[in-house]
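Practice problem: predict the structure.
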Amino acid sequence: MSKRKVKFEATKHINEVIRMTTSSGFDTEKSRGFTINVTIFDGEENDKYISGGWEIYSDDMSCYGEGSLSFEGNKCFDYDGCFDLSHQLCDLLTQNGYDMSEVDSRLF
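Answer:
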């Protein structure tokens, strides 16, 4: 089995209040400050799509979320792990050349 090569990787700390909604619909607001990590992998030679992963956690570690991302080229067309992707995650990827228009709920 081959090890997947990383195409893009970033970590960003954001000094804002984090609000997360659980799968049961419960909203939580936590202390100011959280970190986003995102990794996107290179596809294999015949792959039509590439994948990535994200995680977000509050500074006090009382809030945590993670999920996956699916791309065709640089356009993200699907994600898993939350109801709405963090707009900060969408902004981070957009600033680095990724098209998040199909998954950024602020655009719906």
